[in-house]
Amino acid sequence: MSLRVRLVALVAVLLAVGMSVAALATLAALRYFLVSRTDTQLDQLSAIVGAQMGDGGGLGPSDLGNGRLASAGGQPFVLLRVLSPDGTPMLDLQSPVGQTPTIQLQPEAPSSGNPDGGVYTTVTLADQQPKQWRVRSGWLPDRRAILQVGLPLTDYDTVNRQLIRTEVAATVVILVAIVVIAWWVIGLGTRPLDRIARTAGEIGAGRLDLRVSPARPNTEIGRLSTALNAMLVQIQTAFQERQTSEERLRRFVADASHELNTPVATIRGYAELFRHGAGARPADLEVAMRRIESEATRMGQLVNELLVLAKLDEGRPLDRAQVDLTHLATEAVADARAIDPDRPLSVQAPGSIVMSGDELRLRQLLANLLSNVRRHTPPGTAAEVRLSTSDGVAVIEVADDGPGLTEEDSRRVFERFYRSATSRGRQREGSGIGLAIVAAIAEAHGGTAEVTSVPGEGTVFTVRIPCDEQG
Question: Domain 214-316 belongs to what architecture?
Fold first, then answer.
């Protein structure tokens, strides 16, 4: 059952209950009014009859038609009896057509507020018309007999039936009208929900770029639309990130397989060469063994670098300690000079810079940056490692005077296995993930890695790491 149907049904039920309660209250008020009016007429009738009987004039059946008691509160009485104190009929002055049964109604003791002790009751006479009667019993002035008078509730029955018919008809008409109006109004109110449902269905079918039509922000549907749109943005972003991650993973696996395939193929080729007789030729055997060892070393280095990236991607806690960054940079430059003595390398630092970090990873970061300079700049190109601090952030800059990078290279240089067009044209020495490791180590320390380069003027790699970052 739809929300619209449930709301209309609820309105109809509440309206029907409300109108029924109002009708019952109206009937109760009408009955109270008519019965009170009848009781007043019975009081007047009792007073007239009691006064005449108290004067000694007496009453008889002939008195009913001679005008002595021509009126009783505006209408002729039709029931008039005198009973003994124990309720036995003594005189039946007037009764409805047929034999009226004795009505047992003992009056109360007289008091200042009720001189004759009058009491009232409503009785139903099954064999008479009308059936409903209002009867009053009270003491005569001599207190030796009971005067019982009664009037039919004909007006009440007639008005009651007419009122019930009117209220039933009015209730049906009003209920139908309200249901129709409620159906239309609730339909207007739930129309945005229908649009939201249709949009959600299309989004579920794959159209993640759709958004819910905005509504007035001060309404519940408006707030719902805003919340849904915010959630959809996050869902779309999450899907895009997942797709990007999956694409990066597929590319990573493909590149890693390609990189590992090269040394494996080389080793296999030299092994086949050895099997086909190179072992009998010492010169060829030496070359084969040297190349197998070289490719095995390269493959081992690639595997180690892949393991480093995998560990960093897992987000494992770093082995943090207080590290002297100036000391690490000085040692990294000394190691680079040992590998390439002809390259001018220098360190510029304001003094000792102590920070919280993983010493092994920071050494690897500096070594990879200097290795990148050695591999991608001409021999003899000068490079400088500059250290500084700014607002609690340690800044590491490795600047060289090499040929620089193109705009595309600068944008993609930290991607895994990415090589520029110029590096792909040369003999491949690196694995293509050294700078990716630099970026991953910086990120693991809560920092960033970026590059600034102008073709023909050199390149500056900048790493920023918070000195007191905890992780």
Answer: Orthogonal Bundle (1.10)
